[in-house]
Design a protein that fits this description.
It contains ten helices and 20 strands. It is α+β, with helices and mostly antiparallel strands. Strands 1, 2, 14, 15, 18 and 19 form a six-stranded mixed sheet that branches. A hairpin with a 4-residue loop joins strand 14 and strand 15 (288-292). The two termini are 22 Å apart.
Length: 407
Amino acid sequence: MEEEKYQKKQRIYKTIMLVVLTAFLSCILTTLYISSNYEIGTSKGIISSIISGEDDNLTTSLKNIEKIMEKYFLYDIDEQKVIDGAIDGYISALNDEYTEYIPAEQMEEYTENITGNYVGVGIYMLENKEQNRIEVLSPIVESPAAEAGILPGDIIFSVNGVEYTGEQIDEASNEIKGPEGTTVKLVILRGEEKIEFEITRKKINTNPVISKKLDNNIGYLEITSFDEGTAEDFKSKFENLKNEGITSLIIDLRNNGGGIVDEALQIADYIVPKGKDLLITVDKNQNEKIEKAEQDPIIDMPIVVLVNENTASSSEILAGALKDLEEATIVGTTTYGKGVIQQVISLRTGAGIKVTVEEYYTPNRNKINGVGIEPDEKVELPETVESPLLVTDEEDTQLQKAMEILK
C-alpha cells in the first residue's frame, strides 16, 4: 500500500513539474523524427529570409513590414525575436494544434522531454519562496538521486560547494546536470541536519514502466509515456513478472499521452504474431504505409489493456492494434482520439518545427483521429474520484474489472 501511494505521488509530482517547467509541451505528443536539411532565418536582419524562392504575397508583405519598421519604429529591433515571431505566426495561422515552432534556445530541452531522457541525477525541484531555498519535490523513480536516498522535502543547500538560493534554481539545475559518468556533490538540509551526497550522473528515464504482481498471478505494467527505451523497460519488467509466476497481464495506458511511435510498435510486436498488421499511415498525397509485426511474440497469456479519455496517440496505436487483432480486452472509457503523427524537423539555426505529416489507422482501418478507441468493456470510475491520477486500488473500478476478467 505504501509503495502504491509513493508511485501515485510520483505521477502527481511529475505532472506538476512538467506543467511548470515545460509548458510549451502542452499539446499531446506522438513521435520524434529529426531532420537537418533546412535553413531558415540565417541572414542577419532579413525577415524575408524565412521564405526562400521567388517573391510571393507572403514574402512581399514581410519585406514591406520590415522596411516600415526599419524606417519608423522608435525602439531597437531584436532581429532574432522578429524572425522567431514571424515563423511562429505563420505556423499558428495553420490552425493545427499539433504543429509548432520551437526556438533554438528551447530545442535541447524540447528534445530531452519528448524522448523522456536527459543526463543528471533525477530530481524534480521547486523554489521554496518562504525559505528562499531550493526544495526537492521528488526524486525520479529508479534515478541515482532516489537510489542515494534523496527524499521529497529535502532542501538543496549547495551544489559542488556552491550555496544556492531559491531564486537561483535554474543555475543550480544546470550545475547538477553534466556529462554521464561524472559526479556531483550535494549538501542537503533535512530538518536541522546537513547530509552530504556524492551522486554519479547518468541518463535518466523520466517515465519508467511501473510493474507489480497482483492477486491471482496477474501481472501489472503501467506505461506512462512512450520514451526512448520504454519497450526494453517493458520487456525487462515483463520477464521479471513472468519469473514470479504470472499467468495473465494488465497493461495500463490510462493518462498516457503518447510519445515515440516506434516504442509502442515494439511493444505490440512482443504480443502480436509475426507478419500481422500493426498500423496503417497515410500522408497528404495518400501514400500508404503498413507497419507489420516483425518477430515472434514473447507474451502469450490473456491480456487486458486499461484506457481512459487521456489515453492518446501512441497509446491508441497500441490499444487499437491489440483490440483489432483480438490480442487483448480493452477496458475503461473511450480514448482521446489523436490519430495524427508529427515529424520534428531540425533547422540549421538550431530551431525546429514540429509538423503534422500523417494520419494513422488501426489494422482494421478504423479511424482514430477525433474518434478514439472504444473499449470492449466500458467502465467509469466512481464519481467520488476527483482525478484519475489520484484513484486508489480500492476505488479503481477499471482495474477491478480487469482483474475480474483475468480471473
